[in-house]
C-alpha cells in the first residue's frame, strides 16, 4: 500500500515544494495531541492522516504514533488559524442519516467489499483494489458493528464538526450529503466527487448571491 501511495504522490515529494499550501491533520495516539503536518514528505503526511485506528497501522515518526486526525478534528478549520486567507470555507461531508429502528441491530454488511467484481480501470478503482482486502479483513475481525454503533460514531463526529464551526466561524460551510456512501467504499470515490462537485457548486452560487 505504501508503494502504491508513493507512486501516486511521489516518494520524495515535499509538502513545502507544492504549488498550493497543504496541511494534513493527525493525532498522536500515545497522548491524544493534534498535529498539523505542513512540512516533510507528502506521502508520510497523507499516510498519517488516513490511518484509521483498527484499519491501518499508525505511522511511527519522531517518537510519535500518528493516526487519523479526525479523531479530534473531523472538520479541521483550526489548522488554518495561523494562515493568511481571504475567505474561510469548511467542507462538511457528514450528514447524520435517520436511523431505522427496525434495523437497529442489523450488522453492517461488508459483502460488497468482498464480492467486488469489476477490474480497476481508473484512479479510484485502483485505490479500492489496493485497500479492499485490507479493509475487508479488518472489518471481519472486529466485533460485529451494528447500525446503532455506526450511528453513534456519526453523531460524535458531527458534534466535533459543529464545535469546530462555532469556534472558527468560517465564512461558509459546504454541507455535502454523502450519507449514501460508506466510509470504506473507496471504489465509489468518483461518485463521491461528482456529488461533492454538484452540491458545492450550487451552494457556492447561493453564497455569491
Please describe what this structure looks like:
With 209 residues, the protein is an alpha+beta fold. It has a domain at 1-72. 39% of the residues lie in helices and 12% in strands. The protein has 6 helices and 6 strands. It has a 4-stranded antiparallel β-sheet with strand order 2-1-4-3. Strands 5-6 form a two-stranded parallel sheet. Strand 3 (59-61) and strand 4 (64-68) form a beta hairpin. The model is unreliable at 99-120 (pLDDT under 50).
Short description, anyone?
This protein is α+β, with helices and mostly antiparallel strands. It is built from six helices and six strands; from the N terminus they run αββαβββαααβα. Helices cover 39% and strands 12% of the residues.
Question: Stretches where pLDDT falls below 50 for ≥5 residues?
Answer: 99-120
Percent helix range: 25-40%
Q: Which H/E pattern describes the elements?
A: HEEHEEEHHHEH
**Helix-strand category:** alpha+beta
Mean of pLDDT: 78
Keywords:
two-stranded parallel sheet, about 10% strand, alpha+beta, about 210 residues, 6 strands, four-stranded antiparallel sheet
Helix-strand blueprint:
Elements: H1 2-9, E1 24-28, E2 34-37, H2 42-49, E3 59-61, E4 64-68, E5 89-92, H3 111-114, H4 123-141, H5 147-168, E6 172-175, H6 189-208
Parallel strand pairs: 5-6
Antiparallel strand pairs: 1-2, 1-4, 3-4
Amino acid at each position: 500500500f505504501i508503494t502504491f501511495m508513493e507512486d501516486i504522490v511521489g516518494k520524495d515529494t515535499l509538502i513545502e515544494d507544492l504549488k498550493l499550501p497543504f496541511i494534513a491533520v493527525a493525532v498522536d495516539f500515545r497522548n491524544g495531541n493534534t498535529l498539523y503536518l505542513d512540512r516533510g514528505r507528502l506521502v508520510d503526511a497523507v499516510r498519517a492522516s488516513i490511518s484509521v485506528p483498527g484499519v491501518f497501522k499508525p505511522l511511527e515518526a519522531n517518537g510519535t504514533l500518528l493516526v487519523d486526525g479526525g479523531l479530534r478534528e473531523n472538520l479541521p478549520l483550526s489548522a488554518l488559524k495561523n494562515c493568511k486567507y481571504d475567505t474561510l470555507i469548511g467542507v462538511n461531508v457528514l450528514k447524520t442519516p435517520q436511523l431505522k429502528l427496525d434495523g437497529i441491530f442489523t450488522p453492517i454488511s461488508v459483502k460488497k467489499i468482498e464480492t467486488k467484481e469489476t477490474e480497476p480501470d481508473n484512479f479510484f478503482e485502483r485505490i479500492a483494489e489496493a485497500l479492499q482486502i485490507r479493509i475487508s479483513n479488518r472489518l471481519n475481525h472486529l466485533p460485529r458493528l451494528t447500525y446503532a454503533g455506526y450511528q453513534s460514531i456519526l453523531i460524535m463526529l458531527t458534534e466535533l464538526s459543529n464545535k469546530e464551526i462555532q469556534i472558527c466561524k468560517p465564512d461558509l460551510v459546504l454541507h455535502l450529503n454523502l450519507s449514501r456512501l460508506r466510509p470504506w467504499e473507496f471504489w465509489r470515490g468518483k461518485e463521491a466527487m461528482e456529488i461533492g462537485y454538484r452540491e458545492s457548486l450550487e451552494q457556492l452560487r447561493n453564497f455569491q448571491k
